[in-house]
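Annotated sample (chain length 713).
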Amino acid sequence: MSLPPPPPTHHGTPLGHGPWAPPLAPAGAPPAGRERPVGTTASGPRADRQVHAPPRLPPAPARRIADLPPAHTALICVALPGLVISSHEGQLTGQGLEGFYRAGRRVLSRCRLLVAGREPLPVQARMVGADRARFVGAVHASPDAGPDPDVVVERIRSADGTERITLHSAAPRPLRLPVEVALGADLAELGAIASGDPGPELTASVHDSALRWSGPKGNCAVIADPPPADALASAGVLRWEVVLPPGGTQSLELRMRPDGAGAVSTVGRAAASPFARARATGDDPRVEPFLRTCVDDLKALLLRDPLHPSDSHLAAGAPWRCGPAPAESLAAARMTLPLGTRLAVGTLRILARTQLHGPGLRSGMIPGPRRDAGAWLAPSCTGTEATLLFPVLLAEARRWGLPERETEELLPVAEHCLRWLRTTVGDGVYLPDPQPGGLLRCETQAAAHRAAMLGADLLEECGRPGGPHLRQWADELRGAFREEFWIEDRSGGRPAAARTRDGRLVPHLGAGAAHLLDTGLLGSGTPAPGLLDKVRTEQLARLLAGPAMDSGWGLRGLAATEPAYNPFGHRGGAVRVPETAVAVAGLAAAGYEKEASALLHGVLAAAEAFGHRLPEMFAGEPRTEGGAPLPHPAACRPAATAAAAGVLLLTALVGIRPDAPAGTVTLSPIRSAPLGEIVLRGLRLAGAPFSVRVGRLGLAMVEEAADGLQLGA
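Output written by the structure step:
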């Protein structure tokens, strides 16, 4: 769904990126050369090397900062394009974000239930699925019932636009109860609601035994089953007279019909889901609900391409970012490859249709908005991320079993992405931000190197030219990066967060460094070489596992020892789940199992505290005994990359390295078995179910696989 811009926040846009982010600025920067600053040598920096932050950006004009309404305590049911946000009381009052939404518009803002003239006393509210919530209340209906309630009220609220109200009687005699539901609609857009200006509530009319609201931007009707005994349009009230025998039950159902259309259709249901029915079991009881919840959240965030309904991709998250986010859609599809390649091919096709063509430096890019990068760095370009991720996802999807026909279909787009990479680098060695004087970011170089290595592998195996040139450039980048991006100090050094065009280094340490460990897989499941050598990889592992970076719940976005650290900073100290998952997988693949296991345990503990539904981020406050992670009030939950990270975390324990074109798969499990025995069933590899078990001794065994698939050494 496409959402209008809300007022500015302290991130510039909500969470700094997503459908509200400003558009990508034209790229006109000359290719980045390999400049060596004064005070360096071929073997490394000297004492007078320029290592400091780049000049701070000029302050923005003074403006009033508007906070987003808090969403961290809400129950958010998602089945896009449907969404319903509720408080734990169960009543929809129209306050804040509460209400039923369809495609970014609130189609019902109020749904207030009275039984025998009273609001049910809230007893329990909980999620029963990614798209449904259950509210239980109690009512004293009989005057002589004493202190005990004698009617239980259950409400099942669904993101598809339905609410089922069920009354259960525990009274010893029949009850005749008046039931009243007061409804209201403002048909406001989510951006207006977030800014505190939803507009006035509309007046209802009675239409075919239902209430209907009409406004300049749409219509909505609520149909009741059974039909009400009375409908008062001016107040938006429906009334019934319900008779409950002793121990009896009676149900009412309300169905929202936005714009007079049928029920909300979603992608992630039944056979339409692109995900395998994966299951996790084992010694640790958390793995089963964790994987189930992650997959349910992924299904809830699926969207179809309206012009090509067979292709689906993931929205970034609810409630704020239900629109396209190319870089995050690709990243999430990559992390969920063990669940099958259908999401990957749908995402690649959708984004291939957005690729820029024609003359100019941007030709070949997958466009994307800017993303705030925190206090130290200028905003980054998610279009660069998406363009580099496209060939990586295609290459790895092929390893997992993407059919050759679909590979050939998407290969020209990947080639265009790789040509953009080489054109933008030009005669230099680093990939700059696509703006005049753009920074040379550490994680951008890691992504570019990975794209070059996996892209070269893909081109050569498909008989296309260009592979040797990409490998040669990747070799040059590796050598230059090890000399010019590493800051030596007495503790062993660290990678710089970025490098300016004149050679100055931005020294702060953040979770973005974890991307240096994410290398991807080449033929025969061989990990691609990384930008760091073994000694520096070991030092990075120590840094990521240290108390400044590891909060006990996951990696902080910025080390707690940095001057700009803010535990709630979305790029300045908060724990971002996807980066922690990338670190766990990278550390495990590099052989640093102790460090990977510590981060894994932290994320699983955080997931348990959040009911196994991880938000995209939460505060980087240190973990304390008996404590719980602090939620970020503006975080999306569910979020695509957080849910996909759960899949990556659990499959990293097994270390699946597939090569479907070669008919082989290699398993490289974490030998220390940090969660004890774990069994993953129902994954997809080479177009067939794939199941694997890792025992308590760290030995892996394939239990189910495609015919002819061989286990590699």
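Annotation: The chain has a mean pLDDT of 88.
Annotation: The first helix runs from residue 190 to 194.
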